[in-house]
Amino acid sequence: MSGSPNAKLQRVLWALRHPVSQNAFALYVVQFAVSVIPLVTLPWIARRLGPHELGLVVFGQAFSWMLLLIIEFGFNASGTRAVARTRGDPAELARTTAAVQGAKLMLCVVASAVALASAFLIPIFQDHPGYLVLAWVTALFQGVDPGWFFVGIERMRFVSWLEVANRVLAGVFTILLVRGPGDGWIVLALWAAGTIVTSVVTTGLMYRHVALRSPTIAGTRWALGDSWRLFIGGTAVTLYTSANVFFLGVLSTTVQAAFYSTAEKLVRAAPRVITPIATAVFPRVGNLLAQGDHDRARQLTRLTLMALIGLSSAAAAVLIAFAEPIVHLLYGDGFDASIGILRVLALTLPLTAASSGTVQLKLIANGFDRESMIVVVIAALVNLALAFSVVPTYGAKGTAWVIVVVEAVALAAALVAGRRVRHTSRTVASVGK
Question: Is the pTM of this model over 0.85?
Fold first, then answer.
C-alpha cells in the first residue's frame, strides 16, 4: 500500500537524498558555522578589545564587504543562474565560468583603486592603515572565490565543509591570540588568511569540474552585461545593511558602530539559519523555469516563502523577549546600549525574509533583474535619505529604526513587483496555449 509505513519511509529517504535536500543541508552546515562561531568569538573580542577597538574591527570588515560588492558584481545570482542553465553542456559551462571569473579579475583592479583612494579620504584608515590593507586583501580573495559555481551545479558538500573548517580554525586562533587592546588587527588578519586558503582550494576544485579557459573580452562583456542590474541591486542592499556600520564610523563614532554591530550580528545570525533554504531552492526554481514547468516553480516558491517567514518570525520573538540576558551574557555590562538596538533590529527579521525571498525566487529566478534592482534601489535611497539625517544625532539606536522603515519599504516594493511577475507568467502561459 502506498500509505504504508515502509512506503512513507522510502519517500522520506528519497527526499533526503534529493540534490536540493543535500545542498540545503550543506549550506546549513556553513550557515551554522557562520552564525554560531561569531557568537563565541565576538563576545571574546568585545570583552578583550572594548567598544572603541571593536569599532575599528567592524569598520574594517564593513569596508571589506563594500569592496567585495564591486568584485562580486551580482555574480552570486547571475553566475549561479547561468551555471544552472548550462551545466548539462560542458563546453558552454566552461565558457560561462571563464567569462564570470574574467570579469571578476577585471573588477579586482577597480576595487583596488577604490581602496587606494580610501587611504587618503577616510580619516580612520589614515590613522590605521593596516586595517585597510587587511580589508582589501580579504575582499580580493573572497571576491574571486567560486562558491557561486558550486551552488549552480548543486554540489556544495565539500565546499561547505571547507568553509566550516576555515571558520572553526579562525575562531580557535582568535581566542588564542586576541588577548587585549592592540590586538584588533589580528581578527582581520585571521579573516584574510582563511579567505585566501578557501579561495585557492575551491578554485582548484572548480577546475576539476570544468575545463580551464582563458577569459575573452566578449565573454567578460557578456558577464558584466548579464549582471549589472543585479550589481546595482546588490549595491543598494549593502547601502542599507553592512554599510550602516560604515556610516556610523564616518558620521558618528566607532563606539556607536560597535554597539550597533554587536546587536546586528545577533540579528543577522537568524537569517543565516534560514537563508540556505532559499539558496538551495533558487537553482531548482531556475531549472524548472528553464524547462517550462512554471506551476511547479510557483508551488516551490510559495512553500519556501512560507517557511522563511515562519522561521524568521519565531526568531524575532525570541530575540525581543530575551534581548537583555543575551547581551549581558555575551558582551557584558559595557554593551548595555546594544539591548534596545537588538530589540528594534529583531523587528526586521520577518520583513527581510519575506522581501529577500520574494526578490530571489520570484524576480531574479524569473529573469526580472530590472524589477529586483528597482526594489532594492528604492530601499537604499530611503536608507540614505534617513541615515544622513538620523545617524549624526541618534547614533546606533536611530540607525536601527531606520532599518525597520527601510525593510518595510523593501517588502512593499517586492510584493508589488512580485504581482507583476505573476501576471506576466500567466499571460505568457495563455499565449502558449
Answer: no
